[in-house]
Design goal:
- The protein has three domains: 139 residues, Cupredoxins -  blue copper proteins (Immunoglobulin-like), CATH 2.60.40; 145 residues, Sandwich (Immunoglobulin-like), CATH 2.60.40; 146 residues, Sandwich (Immunoglobulin-like).
- It has five helices and 31 strands.
- The structure holds CU-O-CU linkage and copper (II) ion (CU) (2 copies).
- The site of one copper (II) ion has 4 residues, from strand 7.
């Protein structure tokens, strides 16, 4: 039995890096679309947190025997609170980045891979220059500087590569990490902290006989999305977690390329959801199961004090009709093997959410329509279009400040499409899910996951099941520029199920 244990990455790096210095001074003069553009906007004195993040090739001991070649983010804290970076021991995942709302953050990304890459801060409300659009991908050996202010609510966010056509393999080989934002609204709640605040990053992988990752690449894998044969939790196969008989905060991220999970407790006790993509809910909600699609985060309140010490309980995947979902399996096995050394109570109210009013949307009666379908050559598309690096169609232009309703329609088996779910993600903001409608012909597949959908709170990714129409409501605030919306099944994204929208 191994305890999930997080230690601070305390190596403080001297701020004299030959690599960073010249790029930093030169970059404001590069045009924003140049491949090596960096756009620092803060003067050094204003920076609260500065990080160096490098994407490197490395090895990780995942299975017994030969180590596995991985790609991973390595982090160094250049400036800021000592506990900003926390590494997960024995994991290929990048360091957990802890940020406070309001901090001015600079992150210097160094691409030490053999191919172009760029980092996207998934879920964060950041300026265009800091969003990691694929046109900003940098060549091997180059560096990109991100400057942004933390504007988001307390919650769980994440970072991953976003070069066009290569996001799937780069994430798969290991490039991903969590971001945890803290704010003054969360603080007085006294939620479980430290070792009682457990990240659970769920990813599926396939290994070959030499313990190396196998990444599909077949047409079928691209069309369906890659499904692995082994489950990794926080980059490890080891999924036994030793816990005290007390309450924990569990931060789930589905970091898988395409697999959807429907999670439940093995003893049938309900899951208490306290947060979603965009942070804490207003009130805790109980669900018998929770459905979590790629890129989504769900925070759970786990009260192990109701179990006697010595008991074991599992978080399991319930069989469902999403691809690869026919068999049950254990996601995490909790052993309640220690008395509580203290505990915290579930706050009846978690946060204040000022919801948008759908009636105030500029297009309240005529939502922007996005149909998710398969076109000629078995390529997934949105409204018949696939990704174009700089293009924005006339129906993809929004105005800054506007509140809008977008409707995603998964055309399922109509026409030549296949029946697949699409987790739709919109960059740079959090939205509310205001309506779902299912075509009765697809009710059975839908019913296998719908009781687990958590639609409360703020989201940046929404699961759109075959035959389903989902309406989301959002305001395009503060920043203008080019952002993305796409399917977060990474194989679908890489084949072009992604488009720009512009905010002006
Ligand atoms: Cu997590 Cu555009 O992606
Ligand atoms: Cu994103
Ligand atoms: Cu898709």
């Amino acid at each position: 039995m191994k305890k999930l244990f997080y230690s601070s990455d305390r190596r403080v790096f001297l701020k004299n890096m030959a690599l960073g210095a010249s790029a930093l001074t030169l970059s404001p003069f590069f045009p924003a679309c140049a491949s090596s553009a960096s756009v620092p906007v803060f003067s050094d004195i204003d920076i609260d947190v500065e990080l160096q993040l490098s994407a490197v090739r490395d090895k990780a001991q995942i299975l017994p025997g030969a180590s596995t070649n991985v790609w991973r983010y390595q982090g160094e804290l250049l400036k800021g609170p000592e506990d900003t970076l926390k590494i997960i021991p024995d994991s290929y995942l990048g360091p957990i980045i802890h940020l406070e709302k309001g901090q001015h953050v600079r992150i210097n990304f160094a691409n030490k891979l053999d191919e172009p890459s760029i980092i996207h801060w998934h879920g964060l409300h950041v300026p265009e220059s800091a969003d990691g659009h694929p046109r900003l991908a940098i060549a091997p050996g180059e560096q990109y500087t991100y400057d942004f202010t933390v504007l988001d609510r307390a919650g769980t966010y994440w970072y991953h590569p976003h070069p066009h056509g290569r996001t799937g393999p780069q994430v798969y080989y290991g490039l991903a990490g969590l971001i945890m934002i803290h704010d003054p609204e969360e603080e007085p709640l006294d939620l479980p902290q430290g070792q009682y605040d457990l990240p659970i990053v769920i990813q599926d992988r396939t290994f070959d006989q030499d313990n190396q990752f196998v990444y599909g690449g077949s047409n079928m894998d691209q069309m369906m999305g890659f499904l692995g044969t082994s489950l990794l939790i926080n980059g490890r196969t080891q999924n036994d977690i030793s816990v005290e008989a007390r309450s924990y905060r569990l931060r789930l991220l589905n970091g898988s390329n395409s697999r959807i999970y429907k999670l439940a407790m093995s003893d049938g006790s309900p899951l208490v959801v306290i947060g979603t993509d965009g942070g804490l809910l207003e009130y805790p909600v109980e669900h018998n199961a929770v459905t979590i699609a790629p890129a989504q985060r769900i925070e759970l309140w786990m009260d192990f004090s109701k179990y006697p010490v010595g008991e074991k309980v599992q978080l399991i995947n319930q069989p469902n009709a999403t691809p690869g979902g026919n068999n049950p399996f254990t996601v995490a096995a909790f052993s309640i093997d220690q008395e509580a050394s203290g505990t915290t109570a579930l706050p009846p109210r978690l946060s204040i959410i000022t919801a948008h009013d759908p009636k105030e949307a500029v297009n309240a009666n005529s939502p922007r329509q996005f149909s998710l379908q398969m076109g000629m050559g078995m390529i997934w598309n949105i409204n018949g279009r696939t990704f174009e690096m700089e293009q924005v169609a006339s129906d993809e232009k929004v105005r800054v400040g506007d509140l809008e309703v977008w409707q995603f329609t998964n055309l399922g088996g109509m026409g030549m499409g296949m029946l697949l779910p699409h987790p739709m993600h919109i960059h740079g903001l959090q939205f509310q899910i205001i309506e779902r409608q299912i075509d009765p012909r697809y009710q059975d597949v839908y019913a296998s996951v719908s009781d687990g959908l958590v639609d409360e709170g703020w989201h940046d990714t929404v699961l759109v099941m075959p035959g389903e129409q989902v309406k989301v409501l959002m305001r395009f605030e503060d920043f203008t520029g080019l952002y993305l919306y796409h399917c977060h099944n990474l194989e679908h994204e890489d084949m072009g199920m992604m488009r720009n929208f512009s905010v002006s």
